[in-house]
Design brief:
Number of domains: 3
Mean pLDDT: 90
Radius of gyration: 32 Å
Largest sheet: 8 strands, mixed
Strand content: 15-25%
Number of helices: 11
Number of strands: 12
Structural class: alpha/beta
Order of helices and strands: HHHEEHEHEHEEEHEHEHEHEEH
Low-confidence stretches: none
CATH class of the largest domain: Alpha Beta
């Protein structure tokens, strides 16, 4: 049968052992000497042994108490460590956030966002993995990730929550020698005859549904990554749809980048997290930091 003792009783015992005096131990614990003596007596009563040998002039640890002491110190040390760890988690002095995102977010939005969060909370470990959007949702569902990023409009189940972070207008990446690159802006109709190198899994529902059918691309060449689409444009005339925030990436391939108007179609950037779950303080803070950063960051699409 388990014997119930309290943390206060154990701390009282160790304090008396350290101070070798009931009066000094009582002062250390901000207790009266009678209250401290009561804690020790109750502890000894519940254990059924004498832990301290008392006299009018001194107090000594009994043989049983000497064997009991290191075990108590271990228990109290473990408890103090556990409490400190919880406080550190609450105060964001430590923690873990596992983030997943697909291209193009993994090479545009996320690096700066994570760097800024790291400056604010250097004790929190943010681990990032760039994966296709299907893997983003899978990682959140099986709880191998805490936060995911991606385009809004992908099918979600009830276990995930989504929040729109930003509306980013879609632009067209073109070869610099393409005649269309000589204009300041493009229409969907002007792009129609050129092949579209597409890396977006939800192109028809999230993008083309907002474009008149008569302006839909005649040919769509599927690829898996934005880098592949941009690389293909180096060797073949066509275009790739890219959020405006990918401009540095597009221009890094020496490609032209032009806004598409008539109509303007926005790429909706979303953040995903698990629903109906008690999130850690670190994950909560990362979500709040991201949402606030997006509000403060300028966006042409909002």
């Amino acid at each position: 049968m388990a014997i119930e003792v309290t943390v206060r009783q154990l701390r009282a015992f160790i304090t008396v052992v350290d101070r070798k005096s009931f009066s000094e131990a009582a002062d250390t614990m901000c207790l009266s000497q009678a209250a401290l003596s009561g804690l020790i007596k109750e502890l000894e009563s519940r254990l059924g042994v004498r832990l301290l040998d008392r006299s009018t002039r001194s107090v000594e640890v009994s043989a049983v108490g000497a064997a009991f002491e290191p075990l108590v110190r271990q228990v109290l040390g473990g408890l103090d460590h556990a409490i400190e760890s919880v406080i550190n988690l609450k105060d964001l002095r430590q923690g873990l956030v596992r983030v997943v995102a697909p291209e193009p977010l993994s090479c545009t939005l996320l690096p700066e966002l994570m760097a800024n969060y790291g400056e604010r909370y250097p004790g929190v470990d943010v681990r990032f993995n760039d994966v296709p959007i299907e893997e983003v949702l899978k990682a959140l569902a099986n709880e191998s990730a805490d936060v995911g990023f991606g385009p809004a409009g992908v099918p979600l189940d009830d276990s995930l929550e989504v929040q729109i972070l930003r509306l980013d207008p879609l632009w067209a990446a073109l070869r610099s020698d393409d005649p269309l690159a000589e204009t300041d802006s493009l229409s969907w109709r002007a792009l129609r005859a050129r092949p579209l190198f597409n890396y977006m899994p939800n192109l028809r529902t999230s993008v083309l549904s907002q474009v008149p059918v008569r302006c839909h691309p005649e040919e769509i060449i599927p690829v898996h990554r934005i880098n592949t689409a941009l690389s293909m444009l180096k060797v073949k005339r066509g275009y790739a749809l890219c959020p405006s925030t990918t401009r540095p990436l597009v221009e890094g391939f020496d490609l032209a980048f032009r806004p598409i108007v008539r109509p303007v179609v926005n790429w909706r950037i979303a953040i995903f997290s698990r629903a109906r779950k008690s999130l850690s303080p670190a994950v909560e803070s990362f979500l709040e930091f991201t949402i606030q950063s997006m509000k403060e960051s300028p966006s042409d699409g909002l």
